[in-house]
Structures are given as C-alpha cells and as structure tokens.
C-alpha cells in the first residue's frame, strides 16, 4: 500500500488536465492510474492498412478525430485548437460542402435537401432561445423541426439528409434529443469559436497532444504514472480513499479525482464502498452516452491508379451520403482519406454508424459487417466497380469494459 495526497483515476484528457492543475498549484504528491497502456483514454488510434510507398501501416483514429470549432479573430479560441497548434498536429479542414449524394441506384442529387433542413434549423434555433430565456417547457428536436416545417416521414432521402445534419453530430436522432440543449451544445462550440471542423490525421495519433502536455509536468518513466492498471474497487471515508487494482495492488490517498467514463460508472465496472450517494448516482444515470463507430476499409486502386469513389463528378470529394430505401442510418456517410490534404493515395475509405446501428454492428462478426457495407457500396457504384478490400477494421466501443460507450 502506497499513500499519497491525491489519486487521479483515468489518464484521458480530463485526468491529465486534473493532474496538470494539481502540478500548477504546487501539489506534486499525486498518482495517475489508468487501465490502458497509453495516455489519452478514448482519444485512441491504431495501425491500419499499408502505405504503398513505405510498406508501413497508417495510423487511424478509433475515437476522437476532429477539432470542432477553432476560433475567430478577436474572439475566444478553442483550447483544443490551441493545443493542436502548440504540438503541431497534422490536420485538414473538413469541407462539408464537398459531398456527393447517393441512393440504392447510384448517384442521386438530393443535396438541396440539406439546405431545406438548415432553413428549418434556423427556426428551431430561434424557438430554442425563447424556450431557454423564458424558462418554458423543453421539447424534442423532432417537435421543433416539425414546427419549422421539416417533416421527413417516409422520405428516405430526407431521412439521410437529416442524419447527416443531426445524428452524425449527436449520435442520437432528433426524436431522442432536446431541442433547447441540442442548440445550446451546437452554439457553444460553433458560435463561440467558429464553424470549422478540422480532421486530425497526424500519424503520431491525435493523443500526441495529450501525451505531450502530460510530459510537461511528468518525467520519462515517472513513478506517479500507473498505466495498465485496472482499478476494480474504491473505498472512501472522511479519512481518505483506497483504490484497489485487479492485480491486488492498492493506493491510498487523501483525495481521489475520478474521471472514468460515464459508461464505466453506469455499468458498475468499479465498485464503490460505500455506494455513491443517490444524488450522484442520479447524475451518472441521467447522462446518456452515444456510440459512434467508424468502419475502415483500404481498397486497391484501379488500373488507372484512381479509386472507385473518385469516378464521380468531382474526384476530390470528401463525403458521400447514402440514402437507404428501407432503414434510416444504414451505413449513411462515407469519407475518403485519399482526398487532397489527408492521407493521399492511401485508398482508405470509412463509413460511420451511430446509436442502434453501432450496437448492431459491434455485436456481429467482422465478416457480416463487411458484407453489409460492400453491398451498399456496390449499389452506389456498381457491383463490378467495387473490389474486395485489402484491409478492414472497426472498433467495438460499446463492448470495451473500460469505456462502455453506450446508451
């Protein structure tokens, strides 16, 4: 048993920021504990595919991938953007106007529906301001959009447009979301800072900036950093806190700062003795975590050296929106990492699913998911134009005991 002043539980962004704050306040007797072998938590990456020029794999992000809202002249700057610049993260502006729309028959031009949604959204914004300032009863985003005359109903192209505009941002549908707080969330990022989204493709990994910040106050091989340590129980009283790991080791501290995922806390992965007070449990259980799953493919180029998604009207297109004729959110948004400014020539193409589709994909086999996505791509581009992938991979966040990204 080792006794210290503060135990910081979790070495993700929140845990490292907490430890840095302690350091800046001249509190140095702290220990950081994390189950993973790296700093960063859900800002996590892996190797994927093969770079044809070097023969080495690429680095792709499994979790956080963008800096959302950068900053405007004379206005505040997003602190994540400040750190991204400080540590020189390679990133590229995601141009959401660079989009091609598809249905089950191939290219189908319904991009104008995105403008229709945004017209309705402006009404929803105004109404949300009234609800908030006058302390009125909140309502679902679906209610607000319907009042704004956006009613997709059975129109699957409208459903796809709505998914692009809303679900992709929040990992929930408008039916499941607050009108007021969806607007507050959006405005806090994009109106406070800027409307830019920059995709991080740095081959050191997005978490490089978190590691770099950590090592401004930690030393190499710092004994205060305990990685690969699985906390299983926490007991606490007025006299202090005892943290026990799965290997039987323990740390005693006067105080503990817990930065574990809400999903971990909701699933009782760590036992608390005594149980957390009811008011705290209510806060934990009342917070919903959406699941956001990126499914990666690496494809070979054609004989001409291009990729099948580059055969459309603009070969530099970044985004590809698919409207399934039956199911909303069925492999809806694809992204090209071969586009200019990203991992050019990589042949990496990935699709994102959220919420129920994430759970479904994460519960089934790789082969089943691969077959489903390839069927979509072959309906978009033609069965003869989409080859078998060179590589395929996706994370299963909702089944990770240390994360449990789930509802």
Question: Keywords for this structure?
Answer:
407 residues; alpha/beta; FAD/NAD(P)-binding domain; 7-stranded mixed beta sheet; 30% helix; 22% strand
Which helices and strands, and how do they pair?
Blueprint: E1 2-9, H1 13-24, E2 30-33, E3 45-48, E4 58-61, E5 66-68, H2 79-86, E6 91-93, E7 99-103, E8 106-107, H3 112-133, H4 141-147, H5 156-170, H6 179-191, E9 197-200, H7 208-214, E10 225-226, E11 231-237, E12 240-245, E13 250-258, H8 262-266, E14 271-273, H9 278-285, E15 292-298, E16 319-323, E17 333-336, E18 348-354, H10 355-363, H11 366-381, E19 391-393
Parallel strand pairs: 1-2, 1-13, 2-10, 7-16, 11-14
Antiparallel strand pairs: 3-4, 5-9, 6-9, 7-8, 11-12, 12-13, 15-18, 15-19, 16-17, 17-18
GO molecular function, one term: oxidoreductase activity
Organism: Lachnellula suecica
GO biological process, one term: polyamine catabolic process
Tally of strands: 19
CATH topology of the domain at 2-43 and 208-285, by name, is FAD/NAD(P)-binding domain
Helix content: 25-40%
Overall mean pLDDT score?
Answer: 95
CATH superfamily of the domain at 2-43 and 208-285: FAD/NAD(P)-binding domain
Low-pLDDT windows of residues: none
State the strand order across the main sheet: 10-2-1-13-12-11-14
Return Rg in Å.
23 Å
H/E element order: EHEEEEHEEEHHHHEHEEEEHEHEEEEHHE
Pfam family, one: Amino_oxidase
GO molecular function, one term: oxidoreductase activity
InterPro entries: Amino_oxidase, FAD/NAD-bd_sf, Flavin_monoamine_oxidase
Protein name: Polyamine oxidase
């Amino acid at each position: 048993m080792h006794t210290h002043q503060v135990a910081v539980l979790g070495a993700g962004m929140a845990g490292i920021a907490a430890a840095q704050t302690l350091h800046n306040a001249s509190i140095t007797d702290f220990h950081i504990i994390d189950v993973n072998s790296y700093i960063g938590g859900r800002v996590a990456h892996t190797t994927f595919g093969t770079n044809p020029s070097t023969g080495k794999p690429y680095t792709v992000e499994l979790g956080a991938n963008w800096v959302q809202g950068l900053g405007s002249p004379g206005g505040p700057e997003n602190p994540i953007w400040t750190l991204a610049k400080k540590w020189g993260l390679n990133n590229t502006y995601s141009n959401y106007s660079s989009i091609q729309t598809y249905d089950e028959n191939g290219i189908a031009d319904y991009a104008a529906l995105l403008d229709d949604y945004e017209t309705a959204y402006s009404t929803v914004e105004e109404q949300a301001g009234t609800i908030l300032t006058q302390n009125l009863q909140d309502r679902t985003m679906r209610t607000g959009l319907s009042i704004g005359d956006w009613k997709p109903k059975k129109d699957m192209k409208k459903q796809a447009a709505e998914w692009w505009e809303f679900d992709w941002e929040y990992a929930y549908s408008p039916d499941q979301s607050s009108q007021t707080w969806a607007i507050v969330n959006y405005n806090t990022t994009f109106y406070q800072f800027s409307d830019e989204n920059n995709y991080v493709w740095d081959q050191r990994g997005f978490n490089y900036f978190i590691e770099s910040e950590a090592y401004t106050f930690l030393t190499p091989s710092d004994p205060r950093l305990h990685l690969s340590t699985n906390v299983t129980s926490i007991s606490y009283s007025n006299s202090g806190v005892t943290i026990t790991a799965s290997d039987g080791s323990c740390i005693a501290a006067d105080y503990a700062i817990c930065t574990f995922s809400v999903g971990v806390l909701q699933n009782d992965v760590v036992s608390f003795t005594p149980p957390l007070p009811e008011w705290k449990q209510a806060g934990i259980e009342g917070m919903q975590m959406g699941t956001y799953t990126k499914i990666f493919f690496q494809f070979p180029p054609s004989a001409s050296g291009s990729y099948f998604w580059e055969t459309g009207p603009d070969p530099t297109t970044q985004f590809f929106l698919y409207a399934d004729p039956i199911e909303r959110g069925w492999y809806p948004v694809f992204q090209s990492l071969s586009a200019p400014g990203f991992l050019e020539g990589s042949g990496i193409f990935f699709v994102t699913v959220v919420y129920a589709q994430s759970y479904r994909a994460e519960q089934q086999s790789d082969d089943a998911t691969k077959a489903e996505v390839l069927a979509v791509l072959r309906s978009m581009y033609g069965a003869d134009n989409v080859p078998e992938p060179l590589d395929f991979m996706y994370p299963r966040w909702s089944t990770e005991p240390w994360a449990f990204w789930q509802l």
